[in-house]
Amino acid sequence: xxxxxQRTGAQRPSPGLPLPTRPAFWRSPVRGVRFTAVxxxxxxxxxxxxxxxxxxxxxxxxxxxxxxxDKTPAKGWLGLYLFDWPTGPHWLYxxxxxxxxxxxxxxxxxxxxxxxxxxxxxxxxxPARSAGHALERLSLLxxxxxxxxxxxxxxxNIQLEYxxxxxxxxxxxxxxxxxxxxxxxxxxxxxxxxxxxxxxxLPAAESDELASPDPAAPTVSRRGALAVVGAGSLLLLLxxxxxxxxxxxxxxxxxxxxxxxxxxxxxxxxxINKTAAKVGIAxxxxxxRWRLTVAGPAGEFRLSRAELLAMDQHSAAxxxxxxxxxxxxxxxxxxxxxxxxxxxxxxxxxxPPGVLVESLQRSGPFRKVALRDNQVRDPRSLLALGVNGExxxxxxxxxxxxxxxxxxxxxxxxxxSRLTFGEL
Length: 424
Prior knowledge:
Keywords: Membrane, Transmembrane, Transmembrane helix. Residues 285-421 form the Oxidoreductase molybdopterin-binding domain. By secondary structure, the protein is an alpha+beta fold. The protein has helices spanning 33-59, 92-106, 108-122, 131-159, 168-200, 222-238, 305-310, 338-344, 373-377, and strands at residues 292-296, 299-303, 314-318, 331-337, 354-359, 368-372, 382-387, 390-391, 401-403, 416-421. It has two domains: 23-238, no CATH class; 283-421, Sulfite Oxidase, Chain A, domain 2. It contains nine helices and ten strands. The strands form two sheets. Strands 2-1-10-5-6 form a five-stranded mixed beta sheet. Strands 3, 4, 7, 8 and 9 form a five-stranded antiparallel beta sheet that branches. Helix 1 runs antiparallel to helix 5 (168-200) and helix 4 (131-159) crosses helix 5. It is elongated and about 80 Å long.
């Protein structure tokens, strides 16, 4: 009778069992430097445009004008590029922020494919073979972490309203600078080789460090894999971009909550971000007792809605465009020009240094906003009392709201209670 082998403890794994630190662990035949180079060049163009439009979005808030506008007060030299945001063309913010958000969504499959293509390098040993290699690994770590942080926070802000009640701005702003610094360093290290590989292929004497030494049987070619990534991006484009338009196109925006059908019908039946009920505006506050306070060098005046309607009324066709990327087409607003109210407040030429706008809304970001002198002077900047031929609805800011060309939606304050013209 044969003796049974004695158990001496837990069985050890076979020495040949692949681990993530070994190249043989990664067997996809799709991986390779050329595949990664193509994705990298797409991201180079796309992320650069994302960064530029993101900086423009931040500038549109005029953060250096007043503390109420500045959500990143410790930005220091990171705000060196800031400039006075213009009022024309009137669709400027609708374009820049629409591109920023839509492009960010469209690039998700490309980013995921790029991360998948280089994941073996994240496990490569030793961690650093030289100073240059250590710098490359550090830039890669910051690049991957920064990309995931920026894309995840951006997507969550689009999908979940008020998830970051005011903290989104500093999180996304500072995160963007860290990410782009790593992206720039990585680009400087990798771009020359990527261009050489795409133009001339991999030299015979140089091995493809991303290709598997023992590839599995192929199920899709590298061109096919790129086609799948492109199809994913196209699908995201078709199911998200419609939120920047009214009518039938908005109904195609299945992946963006604010891209659904318009709220109701009629003149006030276009997109909104926050309702009167959500921010706690009671009907009594906007009824007959409501008064607008206008303050400036000439003193302080209180005007009823009837008195505002008795003033000269002007019209302007302007969209609403929000930081989440959604926007409306041009709506016809009618009301009192801000420059006329500036004249009433004590600036005879209608050219005050700016105006502080305060809402009945008592909490939440941008309850108060400051507008620049160029925004007050523009004849299209209105204290709007009606839209598309009818009075404002409560959710669109009744009894009065500000509407300014090219300004972010949150700068077009609803339920206005006070305008203070002068030094901010």
